[in-house]
Amino acid sequence: MLSAFSNSMRIPELRVRILFTFGIIFICRLLASVPTPGVDAAALHQFMQQIHQMAGGSFVGMFDLFSGGALQNCAVGALGVMPYISASIILQLMTAVVPTLERLAREGDTGRQKITQYTRYLTVLLCIVQGYAMALTLENPQALGITQDIVIAPGWGFRLMSVLTMTTATLLLMWLGEQITERGIGNGMSLIITIGIISQLPGAIQATINMFKPVDGVAQFGAFHLVGLLILVFMVVAGTVAVTQAQRKIPVQYAKRVVGRKVYGGQSTYMPLRVNYSGVMPIIFAQAILMFPSKIFSMIPGAFSQRVAAALQYGTFTHNTIYALMILFFSYFWVATQFNPIQIADDLKKYGGYVPGIRPGKPTADFLDRTMTRITLAGAIFLSVIAVFPSVLAQQFRIPWIVAHFFGGTSLLIIVGVMLDTMRQIESHLVMRYYDGFLKKGRLRSRAK
Predict the structure, then answer these.
(1) 372 in the same domain as 334
(2) Which of 146, 153, 289, 327 is the most exposed place for a label (fewest CB within 10 A)?
(3) What is the pTM of this model?
């Protein structure tokens, strides 16, 4: 593998792409460090630390995770690329139910460019709404139990400045992500989110070291716990990689067609159906919805409402159970909206393809739907376990949240998925120039010209 990385820098085109990607990532990290104008830096740091501790495992914690700690610093890039991701998800779901968008999606490059334009417009709208909400939160920290003022000069001037700077930073991040996709290596938006998550790794390492430091002469964790954590992180990462890569291969046979004097088709191939088809989306949907019930019930007077609010707090057994069930539901919901077995069966029939032993048309669609339903159950159970696991570590074993979230959940799934995709792209360049990839010995077979 080290030889493969070394060979990557020997190919001029690949070297330029890698260095360009690193340069863009450096600019993105700067946007996560420049504070929002008009705030008290010391009070801001204390405020965001308390928010982070109170909502480490909630949607606010996930939002801060995606922004690479920019939300905790209240930087100009505090919104990160989350508005763009949210707009993309909304348009993707609407494409499955709105006929106009569905027709645009089938028009090829022209239709996709139009949908991308709509996504950008919706991103600006979401940035304005979220930026204004954040400005109001900074102006009124008393609503969160914090008495110290944060904004130096509250008012419409500060709100407009915050909305303008945060919206501009998000649009800049969106443009930088597109530049990485076009001129760098990997998917730009996904890489920006992944680097933001990895940026919290030094803090997680420091928190891990503090776990084993003695307090009043007694250490909370010992060498046995350290070995257990190392084995656990290896098993979790290996399992995540295995399930992310897992797929069911459906054999497909194409009939021979004679066009003029040429014979087309006749080959055998397969259709890969991913076990974890929905990726990280069910976890994001479940987290976004579960952040509201506890807060709503806590504001309703009465003993029953307070008991319900306490039961729905992050980390409780009730919360984890509902969380897992919602992930199961959204896994099937995502497959139902994005996987279209009828269209796949029609396309196979149009091009002379068929699944051996299954009649073309509706029987093929029913077979694909039944197969996808079965393998989705395995992927959904895996997502539920990996999503609840950090909560169990944090609540039951007193592992700090900044350490626990690297053992599963949204962060680990994103890191594994993006890194695998980026390594596949680098490997394609290596194989094209006659170099071995990451899964080979890394031996140079022929010098690049």
Answers:
(1) yes
(2) 153
(3) 0.78
